Amino acid sequence: MSESTNGFDELTHPNSSGLAILPLLLFVLIFLGTGVWLHIQGVEFAFYQLPAPVAIIPAIILALCLDKYLASRPIKLENSLTSLIEGMGNDKVITMCLIYLLAGAFSSVAQATGGVDVMVNIGLQFIPAPLVIAGLFLISALIATAMGTSMGTIGAIAPIAVGIVGNVSIDPAIIAGAVVGGAIFGDNLSLISDTTIASTKTQGAELKDKFYENLIFAIPAALICIAFYAFIGFNNPAEITSLEVSNVWLGLPYLLVIILAVMGVNVFLVLLLGTVLSALTGALLGDYQLSLVGKDIFTGFSNMQEIFLLSMLIGGLSELMKRQGGLGYLVGKINQLVQVFSKKSSSSSTNQVAIASLAFTTNLAVANNTVAIIVTGDTAKQLAQECSIEPKRSASLLDVFSCIAQGLVPYGAQALLAAATFGISPLDVVANVWYCMILAVVSIVVVKLRKS
């Protein structure tokens, strides 16, 4: 646990830690409770009607009140606000926010130039008819890895997949599940996704190291999933209408971002180069107007507004909870619970299970994998440090298990978007996101079998 920079460590009440997690519980209650209530009322995308940055404000107010109540001697509101602001301005939080903005800019400009359509169409041209479901999974995985967003991927691929549904005698829910599963795969692996950025920055890991660590979990799960889809496809042959492919060079920026990021080039430089190259290739080889680049970049910034604000506010809330002993209390309880089931003392394997459980259960509550990672990042880092778990591994566990939960919650944005596009129930979608189910089994086996 980090030391307070204000010199008020001694003001924390020794029995305050349990109460100090109340702000986090309040945030989850407001965020999830509002979604449940609106869903019952029949509101579409009910769990996303109340923006998370707004839902967390009452939690911050409660944390500020507790900061004064739990201390052994009076604390001025100014001092509590100083802790809040220091948490919001933490260098990791600010770095994370800047990367969010650049990632949004790249994704917006690259999409505006037509690169996404090019990559989708090229992929469909080379898919044999019996492998249409496996192919949609792979295309979704590729696009999500390049774009860094599962939602953007589903939005691009799902309408095309709906058109294929009419040519196959396969349950549309299976096809929808393949698209969502591939999007989750790519979002989990992408070097520019907000989950990757959040997990590496909170754990102090390198992007490329976390990428290679994730491959240990993701590749076996993906191969098993593809085998299942191929089996179904060969027993239910499909016909794919030929699609016209525009200039293939418009997809170059996506490839460049992946290569440079894997090479370990600074993420700021990667995203800047990707954005510039997207605009230039679109203008020189397509019909993109360079005069629109400023507007498209700002659109990308705007798309990241919610996660930008939430990251800063979560950073402030975490700092208050840390000072009040809440994060330490949470770590202790999670360890106790995991040890009850493992019947062992604290060990690398036990703490890895604890980190995974923390990410998974938190994401079930908030239905947003990035939010879950940001909320649990400090706690996961402390659990990792207790048993000398490498930052890349704790970052990978956070990302993998939050993404598993995200793909399986029917009130998550991915399931809701796919359900709306295919005209089916979100429950039908998540029941067929086989990749996340297989990834959960593979990940548990890997954690248990790997040596520290």
From TrEMBL:
Q: Where in the cell is it found?
A: Cell membrane
Q: What is its main location?
A: membrane
**Top-level taxon:** Bacteria
Sequence intervals crossing the membrane: 20-40, 46-66, 93-110, 122-144, 211-232, 252-285, 353-376, 429-449
Homology family: Belongs to the NhaC Na(+)/H(+) (TC 2.A.35) antiporter family.
The answer to whether UniProt assigns keyword Secreted to this entry is: no
Membrane topology of this protein: Multi-pass membrane protein
* Protein's recorded name: Na+/H+ antiporter NhaC family protein
- Signal sequence range: none
Boundaries of every Na+/H+ antiporter NhaC-like C-terminal domain copy? 72-233, 257-446
Instruction: Identify the Pfam families for this entry.
Output: Na_H_antiporter (PF03553)
